[in-house]
Amino acid sequence: MGVFWLVGGVLMLYFEDKNWLGLGYGGFGIAYFIYGFSKKDKTDEYIAWDRDRIEIGQLYNEPQIYTREQIDSIHFSKNNLTIKSGAAAGTMLELKDFKAKELKRLKEELTIYFNQGD
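The chain above was modelled as a monomer; its predicted structure follows.
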């Protein structure tokens, strides 16, 4: 996105006389570059768990950690994993990129560890 805005701003300044809106577009482009560079290490999505907690990393967000005590329930639908935590908290993850073998393991272990209170 940074390249798009920066190129758009430069082209606007080059082809249109005295149209200073191009500077704003160029500024947005530079801002996108800075934002993207600062978030470069947070582009992976993952689910990690053990018997006591679940850690969920989503694109461009800080990891969310739910302990066993915080989790009310875990629900799997066809394409989603929903973790309910408290009255209005929790998260929902899309599972479309998981392989069948990974999904099976995920469902078995999370259900055992967190829904039955092992």
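DSSP finds three helices and six strands in the chain.
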